[in-house]
Amino acid sequence: MTALHTDLYEIRMAVSYLRRGMTEPATFSLFARDLPHDRGFLVCAGLADCLDFLARFHFDDDELDYLREELGLGERDLEALARLCFEGDVWAVPEGHVVFANEPLIEVTASLPQAQLVETTLLNFLTFQTAVATKAARCRIAADGAELVDFSARRTHGVHAAFAAARVSAMVGFAGTSHVAAASRFGLRPVGTMAHSYVEAFPSERAAFRAFAEDFPDATVFLVDTYDTVNGVRTAADLAKTLHLPSARVGVRLDSGDLDALSRVTRKILDDAGLPEARIMASGGLDEHAILRLVRAGAPIDSYGVGTKMGVSADAPSLDTAYKLVEYAGRPVMKTSPGKATLPGAKQVYRNGSAGPDVLTRRAEQAPHDSLPLLVPVMRAGERVGSGHEFADARARFEHDLAWLPEAAKRLRVPEPVGVQRSAQLDELAERTAKAFRSREAAGWR
Amino acid sequence: MTALHTDLYEIRMAVSYLRRGMTEPATFSLFARDLPHDRGFLVCAGLADCLDFLARFHFDDDELDYLREELGLGERDLEALARLCFEGDVWAVPEGHVVFANEPLIEVTASLPQAQLVETTLLNFLTFQTAVATKAARCRIAADGAELVDFSARRTHGVHAAFAAARVSAMVGFAGTSHVAAASRFGLRPVGTMAHSYVEAFPSERAAFRAFAEDFPDATVFLVDTYDTVNGVRTAADLAKTLHLPSARVGVRLDSGDLDALSRVTRKILDDAGLPEARIMASGGLDEHAILRLVRAGAPIDSYGVGTKMGVSADAPSLDTAYKLVEYAGRPVMKTSPGKATLPGAKQVYRNGSAGPDVLTRRAEQAPHDSLPLLVPVMRAGERVGSGHEFADARARFEHDLAWLPEAAKRLRVPEPVGVQRSAQLDELAERTAKAFRSREAAGWR
User: Fold this and answer.
1) Which of chain B's residues have a Cβ under 8 Å away from the Cβ of A445?
2) Which of A136, A350, B296, B353 could form a disulfide with A169 if both were Cys (CB 3.0 to 4.6 A apart)?
3) Arch. (CATH architecture) of A21-57+86-132+316-442
């Protein structure tokens, strides 16, 4: 990850700013304009990667050579780019918090070229990780206490996404991940059973199950649907008895078919075999809606393996995020294009302990009664500051916010987000900024 | 990218295979079970990353330490894993080719533990890159000759995905990418204009446009919708005249509003200003359907910047891919679970020069009349083989297949895929394999 991981226009603009000495402080605000369909909230994620990126931000020599040759930048431009690192201040909503549309996830104040150049990467990390964390949180809500594990590594959008999906799903309460490298990197619980190929590589299902039980007596989860699911469960139960496997260490995984009906048949077979503690895991194209149906039906499933649909946030694989200049050189600025207008100035979001709406204010405004600010300083002059950067802190914030979130906002279909009100001071600033802009334009400023 | 980038169950299975000496050759076949909704074809992509991964496949010491401590693997297991590298044979459909459901994208033949361990990563790379390439190809079809550029870097799922989206969109005919690092790595044309923040950082739109034209006289594309689009176009046209910018080097970008209506007004303003060669670029939430509407309406748009919806393949962010064992130790194998049954044995796909259906055969079958094989050897004993690995080759294959693809398969809504027939020999093998399995089960093989 280098400074070249950016859109060309960021570099063009930065070069233009540098040539003109436009290096006064600029504040950019990153937020989602709208919540995706059927989303009542977002779970902030991606900040850790953003801070790593900002801390290391620079152009290396190869990159500068590329810019010289490909874009025809001059030596003075390149010298100015070579000197750049990120020396700005960052306020952000820490990972794990729940937010709504129009609430800033991050605000960057830095010399205009610096703040401009980091746009693409900040948008990328925060958008996709927040989308995936939100999807995983919806699975958590649907599961109603049942165990969830991340099975998404095989169909996320590449390596970086696989790591992030494992991490953010754990942040919202998933118990583990199948992705070994992610488990290793983030200290998560690695989870895994067997694949159909294992069963097929042996001359019979029974031979495969026996071998697996011998090799992994402490965690023996049999995949039972390679040939005939009910037969598979009977074979697993019979072997568990024959080999005297401890009931609590045995499980079966159902990966196809009518999971509700099959889980009931499976439970009965396991109970009848004297394996009341043997666990039933379900997987195969699950998302929050499928989990909710199974939970509501009372299917006796102990653990859900959630893969692709969570890992790509299948029904909302992106968010309508924006990174907008809100102040430059002490002057508040705003876009006025219809449907995409923005609010000027650095901001804060205050949340009341009750379930009232959040309040979007100017950064320096006094806190409304009984309210706490969501945005906190996370970087000052390019150095990380503050506490709460630990993964455990992010988990705790999500648990807190999940408990706070009203049922109507947690609904998986047609939810009612808590919403956000603008403070009078913010409205006043917006009006004043628009008016100042109109009078400059009317005066034909050139 | 290391061997630990895999699901835990792959490691459990590999360990079990190694302990039991189950290291005879296994063949796995990777294919999409179905095409996503409204897809009439898929464009193969991701093979280059897969071959890089296979060529470097190994567990390093830190990873083995993790497996020792976290999974409690014994020293003999770890020694066996430490010795593993990928020494197998790979056949694949080269990147850029069009394929359909049930046609293998890749087939791996290797010692069972090796072939098993690479599953997660091969599925990941081929699934998401093929999904994104297919989405980009649909934009290409919709654009009907208009220029397309990739603007997706800010909302792809992470860094790896951003690089891949730039590359695979270029493979299917995109003219360039905004992502500078990807342009640099893959030799693509970097494309970029200015953002709204640039316009806002200056005291007026006119001042911003003037500065940009001074700094980038060779490629001056003005973003005109920060405040009022039509005013913005007038300002751009006026400045182009005032500064004597060459008409062919000037453009405007429309990023919001009714792009059809605005592009017509814009064209007229530019033409009236004596700028007939000035180009109009459109962007902002575009996908193949939006592009098709604009093209069909005759909107005078020269270039489309396609971002998020292409880069995440928004309506089909994953494919229903599977990596299935089809042969082990010379014995064809298959899954028989309802709805997820698989076909045994190594395969080939033959395509007829006319638009008849493809034929799915056993690997060693003779080619049907006038047909060419889609799968070719790309790795032998762990070493890359064959030609056609160059990016230009992938582009040429896509152009060829796009010309071959029937109109009905290219339709963006309710398409008719070309489809694939099974050869008699393959059907016969499937029947024989199922029968052999049933008789082993009936004999109560233990």
Assistant:
1) 203-204, 206-207
2) A136
3) Alpha-Beta Barrel (3.20)
